[in-house]
Amino acid sequence: MKRTTAFSLLALGAVAGLRPGTALAADEEIQLWLTGTAVVPLAEDVSGTFELSRRIRENDDQILLRGNADVKLSETVSLGGGGAYVNSIDGLLETGEDKEFRLQQQLTLHFGALSFRTRVEERFFEDAERMQLRIRQRVQASAEVATDLHGAISGEVFYVARSEDVGGDAQVAQWRLNATLVHKLSPHLEATAGYLLMYTPRTGQPDKIAHVPQLTLTFRP
């Protein structure tokens, strides 16, 4: 794989500090995520988010379809739920281990520029022995950078509370660091450019790092 860059070493070192004994050697890959999103009002204080994402990866491309509804209970608290379908591009018309159906529930707390999101996912894989239960905890800070330009940085941990394999251990599956800039192109359209660093610890083989540039268009009627 590619040689580890100085930035990757710093990021990996920061994450490794949370996992004593982690080696610095890791496999790396580059991905590109292209996403189209629509955020529409469904009722008073209820919004729906619909997402189509193509994830261009070194081994095989992936497609993700997601729908979610969020209810704003107060200025601080939002509740949401929905589902997603994930598959490789080559496997869209086939069955196999790449196919995944996912249900999700989430709680989001807003405190000014800070937000905290807890998401619970029930993941159903095509050839798995049972449902996987995954918990995602994200912390995000955002701020206005300039007129019609907002920036955000977030950290998220993925914890598998129940493996899809009978007898599998609960474990931290992934860490993510994400930085984005959102530019308002018009009253109804936003463009987002971002960089996502994904760190995946693995047992018995080098840990994995993915560098992911991201481009997103969001429509709001």
Q: Into how many domains do the coordinates divide?
A: 1
Q: Give the overall shape, derived from the CA principal axes.
A: globular
Sketch the topology as an H/E string, one letter per element. Answer: HEEEEEEEEEEEE
Please list the strands of the largest sheet in the order they lie side by side: 2-3-4-5-6-7-8-9-10-11-12
> Overall mean pLDDT score?
89
Low-confidence stretches: 1-23
The major beta sheet can be summarized as: 11 strands, mixed, barrel
How much of the sequence lies in strands comes to: over 45%
| Annotated CATH topology | Porin
Just give the CATH class.
Answer: Mainly Beta
Tell me the number of helical segments per DSSP (H or I, 4 or more residues long): 1
Count the E strands. Answer: 12
* CATH H-level superfamily title: monomeric porin ompg
The percent of residues in helical segments reads under 10%
Q: What structural class do you assign from the helix and strand content?
A: mainly beta
First-last Cα distance: 44 Å
Structural descriptors:
single chain; mainly beta; 221 residues; Porin; disordered N terminus
